[in-house]
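1st attempt posting a full record on here, be nice pls
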Amino acid sequence: MRKNFGAKPWTYPQPVFILATYDENGVPDAMNAAWGGISDDKELTMCISDDKELTMCISAGHKTTANILARKAFTVSMATAHQAVACDYVDIESGNRVANKLEKAGWHTTKSEFVDAPLVDELPMAVECRLVSYDPESCRLVGEIMNVCAEESVLDSEGKIDVEKLAPITFDPVHNVYRKLGEVVGQAFQDGAKLK
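the predicted structure (as tokens):
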């Protein structure tokens, strides 16, 4: 028997994205988008486009949103278990109130080679995006992926990103906790062939 909880923004896993931008003065800022995939409390947003766009929903009131609109670029880093405290800090503190959020988080930045936005040095994987569009009514942000980068420390022997070394975290909206991604349970695009 199933238990009904009503309309809730509960899906698993919910990635924890850290969006980083520069403001009009070139000061780096970052925010936590731990609701990745949720547009509001009752809508699930999924975007299937070509492989070169990233879609998110962020409200117009965020400093990050204003920065993206001003600089036309942003980066999206994967939050990690090693940086969970700092990743949560940039969620609960607003760049509209605290000008040096990244400094307080203990983070450093390097300017992206591909877009006018910072990379957070302590977060080893990022997607670098150019702004395509933003709709303030739906809060839908679309960015063109210009590059994906990762520190060598999170690469495997074949030069690919190793999820165990990266240690990305997900948000558990039911318990309000962050969880580290776990073990391999199957091979995508292969295991299902057994049922053909």
